[in-house]
Amino acid sequence: MRSTRRRTWALPAASVVIAGLIAPLGISVISMAGPSGAGASAPDAPTPEPAGSECRTSVLGSRVVAYCHNPYPSTDRVQLHTECRRWWDIDADATPVDVGPGQTVRLDDRCWKEVGSVWVTHRVQSSV
């Protein structure tokens, strides 16, 4: 038979050993923050100027239409991509179109049968 005392003593001893191993990690994390870590904060990163068009797509049968409006001062080059559902139906990438500030453009495409997915890519050009 094993002694119950040995088991009872092993549990607190193991807890003390584990606490002794973890304590230095906690102290080093606190010391890395240092006295300046309490009240000081890093400067905010500069936020980029908003740019790009907002595009809305619609699918009706085998036809796709996208309207893109650019409310920002930079020009956005948009391109409509259509993936057809049937394996033999050719996927299409429309010609890229520049959308100037305050302009709205219409992009359209079609598949022979059903449309699988549609998306618009953007390439923002600087306003300078």
> pLDDT under 50 segments (min length 5)?
none
Order of helices and strands: HHEEEEEEE
Major sheet description:
4 strands, antiparallel
**Percent in strands:** 35-45%
Please compute the radius of gyration using only Cα atoms.
31 Å
Structural class designation: alpha+beta
Top keywords for this entry?
alpha+beta, 3-stranded antiparallel β-sheet, 128 residues
Question: Please, could you describe this protein's structure?
Answer:
By secondary structure, the chain is α+β, with helices and mostly antiparallel strands. 27% of the residues lie in helices and 37% in strands. The strands form two sheets. Strands 3, 4, 5 and 7 form a four-stranded antiparallel sheet that branches. A hairpin with a 2-residue loop joins strand 1 (54-60) and strand 2.
